[in-house]
Amino acid sequence: DVYALKPMNCPAHCVMFEQRRRSWRELPVRWADFGALHRDETSGALSGLTRLRRFTQDDAHIFCTPQQLEEEVRGCLHFLRSVYSVLGFSFRLLLSTRPDPCLGEPALWDTAERELQKSLEEFGQPWQLNPGDGAFYGPKIDIQIKDAIGRYHQCATIQLDFQLPIRFNLRYTGADGAEERPVLIHRAVLGSLERMIAILAENCGGRWPLWLSPAQVMVIPVGGDTEEYAQQVVTQFREAGFMVEADLDHSATLNRKIRNAQLGQYNFILGERERNICICVCVFSLSVNLFFSLSLSL
After folding, report:
1. Contact (Cβ atoms closer than 8 angstroms) between residue 243 and residue 212
2. Is 14 a catalytic residue?
3. Residue 7: is the preceding peptide bond cis (ω within 30°)?
4. What is the rounded distance in angstroms from the CA atom of residue 290 to the CA atom of residue 96?
5. Is 250 annotated in the active site?
6. Could you write out the DSSP letters of every residue in 204-254?
7. Is 124 left (phi over 0), alpha (psi -120 to 50) or beta?
8. Nearest to residue 31, comparing CAs of 11, 53, 54?
9. Distance CA 270, CA 216 (A)
10. 124 contacts: CB under 8 Å, gap ≥ 6
11. Catalytic residue among 10, 64, 155, 282, which?
């Protein structure tokens, strides 16, 4: 047996597509793979989590008919906008066109570039032309997001590929019974998950949003006689699906416990004010501390 480090998922998905005869009724076929990929980056190019030799990518490939191409690209654009709006990122779009050298006939490149341009115009967000920066096998839409210090990072991408279907001799049976060749769309929304985590960490300053945070709630009992109640509070939060802990260290003062929870970047710090009536909640956002009372029934 021969083993090798996998640099990309594209060939594997092409092999999967060609395993049996396909009909036009099956298309589009969409496959995603969160597998580990490898690149032989030079040591000078490596940089923390943003550029690695081994990384995980939310890689997807869409096999579609030429008639479905515009709708599929537009769907990819709407998908990435919905994801980036949740993460709080703004992004810019670049249409990267034919490089030199490249694979394929000029007519195919012209058609692919027109399709991408049409999808971008219908998407309705400003975009820029990026001449000569397409992949060697097809044009692409590059999506760059801005980090906390104003640097742009390439994360998402939408690429058209007419070459792999030719090289793997991929076919499907059209509506008229004739064999036709599909179009391949390479799509990544988050891109390298490690790079996305690095950008998110910088933007959040280490204080993750509540829905993403591994340290959501810290419960701090005032004294030894309130520990049982604190454990009840912890149980209720855990049953609701929150990541919650209780600080039961008898050697630390109340102020020290609160400070430790602040340094631990907990989103909420709960200390009992009146048993079975309310708890005092300290909410930490990215830029301001808010204090209020929240009723909690047990």
Report:
1. no
2. no
3. no
4. 45
5. no
6. HTT---TTT-S--EEEE-SSGGGHHHHHHHHHHHHHTT--EEE---TTS-H
7. left
8. 11
9. 11
10. none
11. 10
Taking Cα atoms as reference points, which of 47, 9, 50, 12 lies closest to residue 192? 50
Which of the following is catalytic: 13, 98, 153, 186?
Answer: 186
Q: Kindly name the residue from 13, 22, 61, 257 that is annotated as catalytic.
A: 61
**Catalytic, out of 13, 14, 22, 57:** 57
User: Does the active-site annotation cover 10?
Assistant: yes
Which sign does the torsion angle of CA 174, 179, 183, 184 carry?
positive
Q: What type of residue is 131?
A: P
Measured distance CA(226)–CA(279) in Å, rounded: 12
pLDDT in tens, 89-115: 888 999 999 988 888 888 888 888 888
User: What pTM does this model have?
Assistant: 0.77
Residue type at 182 in one-letter notation = P
pLDDT of residue 201: 85
Residue 277 has pLDDT above 50, yes or no: no
Structure tokens at 22: 């396909």
Task: Please state, in angstroms and rounded to a whole number, the distance separating the CA atoms of residues 192 and 175.
Answer: 38
Rounded to 5 degrees, φ, ψ at 215 are -130, 85
Task: Please name which of 12, 19, 102 lies closest in space to residue 59, comparing C-alpha atoms.
Answer: 12
Task: Please name the residues in contact with 68: beta carbons below 8 A apart, sequence gap of 6 or more.
Answer: 27, 28
> DSSP string covering 104-164, please?
S-HHHHHHHHHHHHHHHHHHTS-EEEETT-SBTTB-EEEEEEE-TTS-EEEEEEEEEESHH
pLDDT tens sequence across 231-270: 888 888 888 888 888 888 888 888 888 888 888 888 877 6
CA dist 248 and 58 (Å) reads: 41
Which residue in the list 59, 142, 161, 247 is annotated as catalytic? 59
